[in-house]
Design goal:
TIM Barrel, binds S-adenosyl-L-homocysteine, 2 domains, 12 helices, 21% strand, 344 residues, alpha/beta, 10-stranded mixed beta sheet, DNA polymerase, domain 1, 14 strands
Amino acid sequence: MYDIKSMDENEIAELLCGMGQPKYRASQIYKWVADGVESFDEMSNIPVSLRNLLKEKCYIYCPEVLARQVSVDGTVKFLWGLRDGNSVESVVMRYRHGNTVCISTQVGCRMGCRFCASTRGGLVRNLEPGEMLDQVRYSGKAADVKISNVVLMGIGEPLENFENVMKFLKLVNSDAGLNIGMRHISISTCGPEGGIEKLADRDLQITLSVSLHAPDDETRSKIMPVNRNTGVEKLVEDCRRYYERTGRRISFEYLMADGINDSDQHARKLAILLMGMGAHVNLIPLNRIEGSEFVPSSGERVKSFIEILEKNGINVTVRRRMGADIDAACGQLRRRKTTEKEDG
Ligand code: SAH
């Protein structure tokens, strides 16, 4: 069975061709799917016989809200039930410049970052393009807002699910569908081997955020096992090439963990590492997760860190904490539900 929501018009045309059906139906069917129909019977301009044939080959699944948490700041977090019983999270954040949804790209994650809840149970599977698209569509519907921006910053490592993520970008960008422009889409990555180079080759106008979190191999490898393959120097070199190739400045995410990566020495190293590439550093207050020894840095530490970066001409901001009261950091809701299930 094919997930029709993951198919583009050409793939639908190929499927129709194999069924001996006229090709022009592909654009009609694609339009219905892109428009968000929930059953083949809603495709009113498609003959019933063809709808039945489609039902034999494809499915239309709509995710179910398993849990919803609403923060005092208006942030809403959803836990979605998928067709095979797995679940993933999305978060809707309301900003003055528009509503943003943060979506997951995998069920679980195999990157193993020590401060992150998403990776605790390892990777279960990749999400299909249609499952990512559904998070955008249904988060907007369920929160009753129009989504204008999408960030791939939820559970999972987008560049480890590369082809499905590329397909998702194409679908979410499609005129017939949600029509969200590439410049309104961000991908966040910890930089698995070869990922950023591959992305640079696609030459997209998306915004790239790189989860750096440390300016040297000693610190980074300790908290992010992915660093043992690539290393900081190579990662930043790939980022420089990415910038040259796409003309898009990169945002580097840096979470501030007390006594781990937040010394003045770390700040100086970071400034030197990122010089001359128009980089932006986004400092992230650490969200404490259960069973983790990581503690957020003090306000004083953060202030000193910012001063050093700014003195060295690095553009820096501190991320606003959205939905802190509902554990909006990725992976925590799914983690809790999965553990409850295991316990009970
Ligand atoms: N795998 C991708 C995207 C998912 S994580 C990546 O690594 O970028 C999204 C962001 O949240 C990353 O910057 C990640 O490092 C950060 N993050 C994970 N756990 C966190 C925590 N407990 N506190 C603050 N930020 C966290």
